[in-house]
Amino acid sequence: MIFSDLEETYHGEHIYDALDSVSPEIRDNNKDFELYRRLQRGGRQVLDASELSGAPEAFSNNGGNQENAGWKLDKWKFMPMVNRTFHEYPDIKWYVFIEADTFLLWTMLQQYLSRLDHTKAIYAGSPSFIADELFAHGGSGFIMSQPALSSVATYYASHKPEIEQLTDGHWAGDCVLGIFTRRSGVQFHNFWPHFQGDYPGLLPYARADGRPVMDDKLREWCYPTISYHHMSSHMIRDFWQFEQEWAKSHDRTETLLNKDVFRDFVMPQMMEGKADWDNLSDTEVADANSLEECRTKCEVQPDCKQYSFGSATRKCKTRTDPRLGKPSNGTISHWLGPRVQHFEQDMAPCGTESWRDPYVWP
Question: pLDDT for 150-172, tens place per residue?
Answer without folding.
Answer: 999 999 999 999 999 999 999 99
